[in-house]
Amino acid sequence: MADLLALSSRIIDSGLTDQPVNRVSNELSEIAPGVALVESFSHCVALDTDEGLVCFDASGVQTGKAVRASLRAWRDAPVSHLVYTHGHADHIGGSMFFGEDQPTVIGHENVATRMDRYEYTNAWNLIINARQFGGVSGDLNLNVGDSGGGFEVKANPGARRFLPSNTLRPAETFSESHDITVGGHRIEMHHARGETDDHLWAWMPEHKAVVTGDFLIWNFPNAGNPQKVQRYPIEWAAALRRMVAMGPELLLPAHGLPIEGKERIARVLDDVATALEDIVRDVVAMMNAGATLDTIIHTVRVPAETLAKPYLRPLYDEPEFVVRGIWRQFGGWWDGAASRLKPSPDAHLATALAQLAGGADVLLRRAAQAAADGDMRLACHLADLAGWAAPDDPAIHGGRADIYLARRKVETSLMSKGIFAAAARESQLVVADATGATGG
To answer: 3-state DSSP call for residue 422?
Structure first.
């Protein structure tokens, strides 16, 4: 097994990321005596006690079985307690493979509400995860293939379940904090909003260890996902500061590498908290000054040296999306442009602009010129307008697909890559349908 602590220390101290930090090997490493971490999507953290294993998270439906097998190879003991750091499917979907142990399942009181929402919006969640993860997970060294990081996303979304029906539900829930003692080991759980409204982090005083869930993911915080529900960056930062105050000497995340050393852990958590606090401060200051969302998005920046840190790279979410999340949290959904309060349908506006320009092909040529000039934002605007104005034209959609594939190549975050790849596929389907209709 890899020496994960030595690897993370070297990467953090040097600032050089020459190896993947988010791996899905399903391999178990004993991080401290009686404390193990299985690297998966998500990880599972396990504490060995005289009364059985206490596990934090069960990984996803496609990885949970392998995670449970790794735990059995480490300790032939039942899982007495299964703690959900939060209710995302990659953390609880694999719980079915823990079911035969009949563990006591613990989670925040909002986990059950989340599970009910996943049932209510089942097809929607399959659709957006296909778009978010589809075919791009290799860019993050997640090693999860085309299945989307543990989610079934390739078939008709109406025929699948985003969260398996036999996912274990929490039997013990709490609002603000919850303590348990298992086999003489005390575990303190604390609720805080961050990536979700049902998140917890745990403190194990005997090991001076903090289990962070997704409060640390070795990427820029996932606080602005463009397709998901509200995230809470300022509360997220406050939770990280509470963790630092505990003085942890061992940090066990749900994604990324574990970290050792009081000073090193405090430095990492402070850097992440500061990045979030600064972006919230700047966005809210501009909102208070009456700025529009358009102005804020193109003004607020996170320093390049911050984004270069191994645990803050924007490879999953990115600061621009967090800006939008802050606006949504404090300002609602309207962006400040009067025409977009009750807008014209996209196709109607695009048709009018194409007529003014001289045709959808003119818009597409201008889009191609913008792409050649390196202005991919403008290129995509114009390509969309061309596509909306000529929804069945294979030539237009072939060009639109090329522009979005080029856009995908220059993006860093999985969120952007996934959405731009999906846009290209939309147009590729138009081309394929037209080719099939002509027998070509």
So the answer is: helix
Considering the chain, tell me which residue range(s) the CATH 1.25.40.880 domain(s) occupy.
Answer: 344-438
d(CA 409, CA 423): 13
Distance (Å, rounded) from C-alpha 218 to C-alpha 258? 10
Find tokens 């967090």 and name the residue: 322
Pairing of strands 200-204, 209-213: antiparallel
DSSP characters for 13-29?
HH----S-SS-----EE
Residue whose tokens read 């970290």: 259
Q: How far apart are CA 436 and CA 373, in angstroms?
A: 34
Considering the entire predicted model, what is its pTM? Answer: 0.92
Alpha-carbon distance of 88 to 108, in angstroms, equals 12
Place of tokens 């621009």: 320
pLDDT in tens, 389-401: 999 999 999 999 9
Residue 147: pLDDT above 80?
no
Strand order in the sheet with 185-191: 177-182, 185-191, 200-204, 209-213, 250-253, 259-260
Q: pLDDT digits over 53-71, tens only?
A: 999 999 999 999 999 999 9
The CATH architecture one would assign to domain 344-438 is Alpha Horseshoe (1.25)
Contact 90, 43 (CB under 8 A): no
Q: Is the model's pLDDT at 35 over the cut of 50?
A: yes
- As a whole number of angstroms, the distance between CA 391 and CA 58 comes to 44
Residues of the chain with CATH 3.60.15.30: 4-271
Which one is the CATH code of 4-271: 3.60.15.30, 3.30.1490.20, 3.30.559.10, 3.40.50.300? 3.60.15.30
**∠ Cα 139 144 145 (to 5°):** 80
